[in-house]
Amino acid sequence: MIPTKKYEAGQYIIREEDTDKTMYIIMEGRVRVEAKDPASGEVVSLAELGPKDFFGETALLLDQPRNASVVALTPVEVYPISSKEMLADYVEIHPQFAMRMIMIMAKRVDQMKEAYLKTYGYLQYAKQILTSLHQKGE
Q: Which residues on neighbouring strands pair with residue 79, listed in sequence order?
């Protein structure tokens, strides 16, 4: 079993765009997931996670750079999983984690869909207003 890692409040565990592929399971403490808004450059809080939650799975599973940063809100202890093989081994030892992971990932996809549809609706509304203003200006 790989030893856990500990982080202090305010310490970054991962940073957006890093190329490290380690996934983490939170054993103790709370973290904030945040990302830079490409339009404004502002850092936006995406989620707060606690014990039994995980992060970094996208980088591990899809072999991509980090799509968000994660900072400890309290002292945090995490279990690092640095390869797909380690994840498979962990799931074999803790089969209930596989179902939890699937449920959480499905929930995240649903939340992203809702956010997309909300943004799309705002864009369509803005388009209608601009079209109306343009027609009035002709």
A: 25
Cα-based distances in Å from 1 to 90, 93, 99? 9, 11, 21
Give the 3-state secondary structure of the chain.
CCCCEEECCCCEEECCCCCCCCEEEEEECCEEEEEECCCCCCEEEEEEECCCCEECHHHHHHCCCCCCEEEECCCEEEEEECCHHHHHHHHHHCHHHHHHHHHHHHHHHHHHHHHHHHHHHHHHHHHHHHHHHHHHHC
Q: Distance between CA 54 and CA 108 in Å, rounded?
A: 12
pTM: 0.78
Over residues 68-90, the pLDDT tens digits come to: 999 999 999 999 999 999 999 99
Q: What is the pLDDT of residues 31-66, one digit of tens each?
A: 999 999 888 889 999 999 999 999 999 999 999 999
